[in-house]
Amino acid sequence: MYYTRQPHPAGLGDAIYRARSFVGEEPFIVMLGDDLMNDKVTLTKQLIDEYDKTHASTIVVMKVPHKEASKYGVIDPGDMLDKDLYNVKKFVEKPAVDKAPSDFAIIGRYLLTPEIFDILEKQKPGRGGEIQLTDAIDTLNQTQRVFAHVFKGQRFDVGNKEGYLETSIQYGLRHPETHDALRKYIIELAHELEKK
Ligand code: G1P
């Protein structure tokens, strides 16, 4: 295990850059801790399987309602290369809803080649005055192919209060240690709330 600290919240790109010496010259995976993913094959394995075929950086996207696109990095998908795999034309960090090039939002898993670090080293602040990973990926896409893998599983976002509470309930109901007691509690609570 290796830990690094970001002393100031200077953006996702700045945070990832701090892993440069640990990663070295190898492709690597970024997993944002506030995005939890569920699928039969883990999403990380899905990304590694794509990489084995393409040897290219691949980011994960998911369709979101159009009005929510401005909360995410969004792609202009370009051609579909394979089932659930696009050769991306453009990456835009949190565009205005009317400027969003598609409804494909970037979610918190990325497989990146180490050339991203040379770009992040020189990356100027973007949206919100922060160093944006999305901007660096857009630059990488001009010299190497960058693909988007469409995720079809379930995503839980614990980066907001409501999502955090819902995810805790969902995971508590799935876990054998907590399932029975939590289920009972929820049913009792629902009855109580109905009476009110
Ligand atoms: C970050 C990325 C954004 C991505 C999102 C996924 O934004 O900058 O491109 O769509 O994670 O959760 P944040 O949620 O940190 O604002």
Secondary structure topology:
Layout: H1 12-17, H2 20-23, E1 28-31, E2 35-38, H3 43-54, E3 57-63, E4 73-76, E5 79-82, E6 85-87, E7 90-93, E8 104-112, H4 116-122, H5 133-140, E9 146-150, E10 154-157, H6 161-174, H7 179-195
Parallel strand pairs: 3-9
Antiparallel strand pairs: 1-8, 2-10, 3-8, 4-7, 5-6, 6-9
Helix pairs in contact: 6-7
The structure holds 1-O-phosphono-alpha-D-glucopyranose (G1P).
Describe the model.
One of its GO terms (molecular function) is UTP:glucose-1-phosphate uridylyltransferase activity. This is UTP--glucose-1-phosphate uridylyltransferase. It catalyses: alpha-D-glucose 1-phosphate + UTP + H(+) = UDP-alpha-D-glucose + diphosphate. The protein folds into two domains: 12-157, Spore Coat Polysaccharide Biosynthesis Protein SpsA, Chain A (Alpha-Beta Complex); 158-196, no CATH class. The N and C termini lie far apart (50 Å). Strand 5 and strand 6 (85-87) form a beta hairpin. The protein has 196 residues and is α+β, with helices and mostly antiparallel strands. It is built from seven helices and ten strands. The structure holds 1-O-phosphono-alpha-D-glucopyranose. 1-O-phosphono-alpha-D-glucopyranose binds at residues 12, 32, 35, 72-73, 93, 105-108, 132-134, 159.
Keywords:
24% strand, alpha+beta, 6-stranded mixed sheet, nucleotidyltransferase, 7 helices, NTP_transferase_dom, binds 1-O-phosphono-alpha-D-glucopyranose
